[in-house]
Amino acid sequence: MDYSKFYTPPSIAFQLVNELNIPSPNKIIDICCGSCNLLSAAKKRWDKAHLYGVDINEHIVESIKFKQMDGREFALEHMGEFPLVVANPPFDYVEENMQFPKLFSGPFKDFKTSRLEIEMLIANLLLLKENGVLLIILPSSFVEAERFLKVRKIVAEKFQIESIIQLDDATFGSSLIRSYALIIKNCEPMNGAVTKIGSAPCKEFKNTIVFKDSISLEKMRSGNWIGYEDTYIDNLRINIKRGNISSAYFVKRGIPILHTAKSSDSWSPSKRYVSKKATPSVYAEKGDILISRIGKSAGQWCVYDGEKMPISDCLYCIKDVDGSVLKTINGRTYNLPQKGVATRYITMTDFVFWINTCKQN
Ligand SMILES: C[S@@+](CC[C@H](N)C(=O)[O-])C[C@H]1O[C@@H](n2cnc3c(N)ncnc32)[C@H](O)[C@@H]1O
């Protein structure tokens, strides 16, 4: 795999480094340093810090102490040494827990993964000194998908997750990768602590990162961070999820997937296809309520009546086990304002809020 096209653009790297609220670090490391853009951004902020770069491939960058080796091996040899760790690791498959089984100790004992970025996350956390901070870019699946629930719970239990920042899909170019930057502190989360939720608008942005939400420690520990909500309104339990497959993965032939469709009086989702390599985590089944998330149809909904099928990230799905949601919204049209400037959208919270208004009327 050629990772060079996924280097962190310097402007984003600088913006993210500026978000770090830490005392001046004497040593900064990136164990998948590639372009060294994250390290260079950190150097701009802390010019006296010593920079350490590791990469499986040769890279020569002035003022960085470079070592060519596997970053996971380096982490196992230098545990607890760094006050600041920066990372945009490769997103890839690995053979489950095979190459560096020693990574799976402490809180990660008995944990299994076949994802390289998760092994790299663990390796990066190992490098941290007490109260040290990790800035790491991970695919959106880490934050949103149910299959990473267990690792999210472990991380939220043992570390203070300070911020989760959604990066623009175009950050890494035309490949359209949905990703988040996380800021994680190596300390037991304090009671009452919250995780700030923000977004970094676009790749060459002059705007700053916008923080618009926060997640309680209790919710962080449950592993249900973003992309999954299980909300109660009075006694009405709403189990709503967003699909995890972006339209960038659509192909002409492959696994069928439900996607949003044009606005219409009797809106229903369209059928598209994704390659077999895609790993959908949210499926619609007969009786579920499907909602369009984006476009002019945002907010339109229907009761799904087809075969079990994965849904794209342009749909939300409500598992209406006892039919109480349908009873509340039946015959009604979503009528709250849509968000967005060029492209209209609604959030899960918007839809749940609307259900609540239906209940009151
Ligand atoms: C997505 S790039 C990120 C580079 C840099 N951190 C940035 O943000 O611009 C990932 C880098 O990881 C390196 N890499 C891949 N597998 C690795 C491994 N096992 N150990 C260390 N580096 C690795 C690749 O050579 C590539 O330079």
Described by its quaternary structure, the protein is single chain
- Assign the CATH architecture of the largest domain: 3-Layer(aba) Sandwich
What's the number of structural domains? 2
Number of helices: 9
**Rg, alpha carbons:** 21 Å
In terms of structural class, how would the helical and strand content be classed? alpha/beta
The CATH superfamily of the largest domain bears the name Vaccinia Virus protein VP39
Mean pLDDT level: 89
CATH class of the largest domain: Alpha Beta
What is the string of SSEs from the N terminus onward? HEHEEHEHEHHEEEEHEEEEEEEEEHH
Report the uncertain regions: none
Cα separation of the termini: 55 Å
Largest sheet: 9 strands, mixed
Tell me which ligands are bound: S-adenosylmethionine
Based on Cα principal axes, name the global outline: elongated
Work out the helicity level.
10-25%
Q: How many beta-strand segments?
A: 18
- How much of the sequence lies in strands comes to 25-35%
CATH-assigned fold name of the largest domain? Rossmann fold
Explain what you see:
The protein is α/β, with parallel strands linked by helices and 361 residues long. The chain has two domains: 3-226, Rossmann fold; 230-360, Adenine-n6-DNA-methyltransferase TaqI, Chain A, domain 2, CATH 3.90.220. It contains nine helices and 18 strands. It has helices spanning 10-18, 37-45, 71-77, 116-127, 140-144, 149-158, 217-222, 324-329, 348-360; strands spanning 27-30, 50-55, 64-68, 82-87, 128-139, 160-167, 179-185, 194-200, 210-216, 228-233, 236-242, 250-259, 270-274, 283-284, 289-292, 301-303, 309-310, 315-319. α1 crosses α2 (37-45). The longest helix has 13 residues, at 348-360. The model has no long low-confidence stretch (mean pLDDT 89). Residues 3, 6-8, 30-35, 37-38, 54-57, 70-71, 88, 90 line the site of S-adenosylmethionine.
